Amino acid sequence: MSFLEDIVAKAKQESKTIVLPEGFDSRIPEAAALVSKSCCAKIVILGKKIDIEKVAPQIDVASLENVICLDYLNSPNFSKYVQKFYEMRKAKGMTIEKAEDILKNPLYYGAMMVKEGEVDGMVAGAANSSGDTIKCSLLTVKMAPDVERMSTCTILVLPNQKFGENGLLIFSDTAMYEIPNREEMCQIALSSANFFEMLTGSKAKVGMLSYSTKGSAKSDSVTKVIEATELAQQKNPELLIDGELQFDSAISPAVANLKAKSSDLHGEANVLIFPDLNSANIACKVAENLVPAELYGPVSQGLAKPINDVSRAASASDIMGIIAITVIQAQNLKS
Question: Which of 329, 332, 323 is nearest to 122 (CA)?
Fold first, then answer.
């Protein structure tokens, strides 16, 4: 079973409703049709049905029969959500007029649907930047009460299954922290490990990455990785985590045996925490284009309710994958 087939099967175990706010992008109705056929989620697309059908004329209209197309600007909930958003932000200078203008953006209307429980999650990013999606998430659904910092990760599925968890690796943080400090890097590691275990049911093995392995170089950036590792171990003594490690020392048993014999990971890391956004983003793009690997994400970690991003280069199939992951996150929310 492929990774996509696996997560679709998990999503089908408990039905959830996901809103897609970018109905003006042709990939969105395509993805909705795939999801509807697979029965892994109920889908709401924001926009008038006639307009949504126009952007993807190649799609059989019958394939969208079970998809709700919501003319949100004329929804009876529009004024209610405007009022709620105003109340949430009035201490920051929000006005009713400004709130109404913001809620006309389908990204924000969709996020308010998630916050108010009208739907279980949202997937965006086909036509919005990661930054816009993340900002919208933090202004609406906000953080989970037991998480100090939101972060993101990207799922990589490699054709070579000897790496990670049968070819599955988590890279983090891939969208938010340009240069995380030790506390931020620690929280990224904890959240990424939790996400990996929720998604796969397997034990997370976390490698904290650097250009140095076990003291082969010394610098402030290396020290940060070491301290972040120690902090994560203090917060979760049961977590299998080690650093600082170079990439090859983290994922290759043969290299680990040469460079990091004392590491409890033994070169079998399945969750990789990068020291900065540059290296994480570049690594994702290299893997996607040269391996090539399947990429899903960035996936949000630490939100009160799931709102996830897709790459603006994502295919309809990629978007379906993120929808299935969002459903699984919704299934696993603490009550």
Answer: 323
